Amino acid sequence: MTPQDVAEALRAAGFCGVEAEGGVIYARVAPQAPEFRAEEGAAGWRLVLPWNISPPAAALAAWNAAMGSARMQMVQGEAQLVMAYPGPEVLPRWAALAGEAEAHFIRWRRQRRPWEGM
Fold first, then answer.
1. What is the pLDDT of residues 47-81, one digit of tens each?
2. Tens digits of per-residue pLDDT, 2-12?
3. Which parts of the chain fold into alpha helices (H)?
4. Residue 84 forms beta bridges with which residues?
5. Cα distances (Å, whole numbers) of residue 43 to 3, 37, 68, 70, 84
6. Cα distances (Å, whole numbers) of residue 68 to 6, 72, 74, 81
7. CB neighbours (10 Å) of residue 70?
8. What backbone torsions phi and psi does residue 91 show, to the nearest 5 degrees?
9. CA atoms of 7 and 88, how far apart (whole Å)
C-alpha cells in the first residue's frame, strides 16, 4: 500500500484536511478535530492520534483492556491512540475511536487543572 493509496482511502471515507508529507499522511476526523497521522512502519501502516497529556495509569490500562486493537500508549510523555491500518475497512472504527479518545484526553486534561493551572 502506497502513501497515495492511504490518502485516497482517507478522502473517500470523508476525512478532512488530508495531506501527505514525507510518506506520512495527516488528516482530521472532522474540521474541528485534532490532526492524526497515518504512517508506515516495519509492521505496516498505522493510525496515530497524539495528545499532549499524561493520562492516569489506571485510565490508560482501562482503555487498553476495553478497546483491543486500538491501543493508547505513552511516547515521550505524550499519550497516543494507535491502531493498525490494514485497509480502509477500519476507518469507520478509527473515526469513532478517535472521537472517543479525544473526549477522554480533554477530560483528563481538565482533571489536571488544579495541579498544572491549565
1. 999 987 777 788 888 888 887 788 888 888 888 89
2. 999 999 999 99
3. 3-12, 57-67, 91-111, 113-116
4. 46
5. 15, 16, 17, 15, 9
6. 23, 10, 16, 12
7. 22
8. -65, -40
9. 10
